[in-house]
Amino acid sequence: MSNNMMVKPLAMALSSSISAAAAAAAQRIHHHASTSRTASLPPSALRRQAEEVITATTSSKRQASIISSANSENTVENATNDSMPKPLLPPKRVLIIRHGQAQHNPRAEAAREAGCSFDEFLRLMELDDAHDAALTDLGEKQAQSAREKYALRDIELVVSSPLSRALRTADLVHPPSESSDSSKKRRIAIENFREINGKLLNAQRRQRCDLVQKFPHWCFNTIPELDDSWTDELESREDCSERGFRGLLWVLKQPEQNVLLVGHGGLLNYTMNGHANVVLVDGRRPSYKDNESEEVRCITKRFGNCELREFIITAWDSAGYNDDVRNGANELDPVIALEEVTLSHNLSL
Fold it and tell me: How far apart are the first and last CA of the chain?
């Protein structure tokens, strides 16, 4: 049985029970925040999360909040399964942002917004292709504006794709000098968060020695010296989403509670909307919009350049649903729930 076949009972169970489980998880994080000097989740966000999830426990609307695109196999409606998966790891607050506009983006992104085909989108990126494409002037300004808008001062861990446009965006949005104790704040590049690999030169990264020289305050110890993974063939959706899934598992296993993750539009889209073991949850308050005339954004929508979203991420035990579906280590892969929450107006609280 495939992972895609397994996800439906898993997601159904999550749909009926994630409210109570998330409430308990939020309470555990709140306790950690009140007893730890490293101040994990902001207390105001913790209270809001706990109140929202507890209130929603008895609401049928909450049971339908695990959503994906209409054509996705992750879509769940009217789930009634009362079984409850077990959280494997403590939940984390993860702020996810896509890099600013890069050299290969302008024409391709405009055409995609206008509804072009994927082949046309790819063709336009090839026309503007550049090795490890850098940010455009607009991309630099977007990242600087994001820095002013979000003021991310409580970040404990910064994780990025090893491609230069993501690393540069991270440095502009959250400069290392702005950390209260920058020597203890890790900044680490993870291969699993790079863009859809292959075919395009903008997806090919620099040698590790070049990255170390260009970004000396970053850790590149986990990536190989040469980019042997890049080929002339475009990486499949399945392989790309699997990389993103493994990357999220890595983040969940780290000791830090407040994480900034800088990634790419394709990678984030494939991971969040195309992996059988990743479930999106809409935990935003109904009044989250600054302008009530704005259209409510679907949580499955592709990230725009320098768009930041806030999530509470939890890994759930998938044991007991299908013992035949296992990873290469002969162990069941967990289900990762990404609950998008209302973006805090002051993320430094």
Answer: 46
Query: Within 13 Å of residue 60, how many CA atoms lie on the same side as its CB?
Result: 4
Between helices 43-56 and 3-35, what is the axis angle to 10°? 130
338: helix, strand or coil:
strand
Q: Mean pLDDT across the chain, nearest whole number?
A: 76
pLDDT digits (tens, 9 = 90+) for 121-173: 989 988 999 999 999 999 999 999 999 998 887 899 999 999 999 999 999 99
Distance CA 143, CA 140 (A): 5
Residue that the structure tokens 């709140």 belong to: 30
- Bridging pattern class, strands 335-341 and 308-316: antiparallel
Q: In this predicted model, what pLDDT tens digit does every residue of 214-273 receive, in sequence order?
A: 999 999 999 999 999 999 999 999 999 999 999 999 999 999 999 999 999 999 999 999
Name the β-bridge partners of 28: none
Return the beta strands (E) in 220-301 as ranges: 258-263, 278-283
Q: Where are the beta strands (DSSP E) in 226-295?
A: 258-263, 278-283
**Residues 43/47/52/55 CA torsion (nearest 10 deg):** 160
Separation of alpha carbons 261 and 255, rounded Å: 15
Q: Report residue 72 as tokens.
A: 């996705």
pLDDT in tens, 262-285: 999 999 999 999 999 999 999 987
**Number of residues assigned to the chain:** 349
As a whole number of angstroms, the distance between CA 245 and CA 336 comes to 8
Any alpha helices (H) in 57-198, and if so which ranges?
106-113, 118-127, 137-150, 164-173
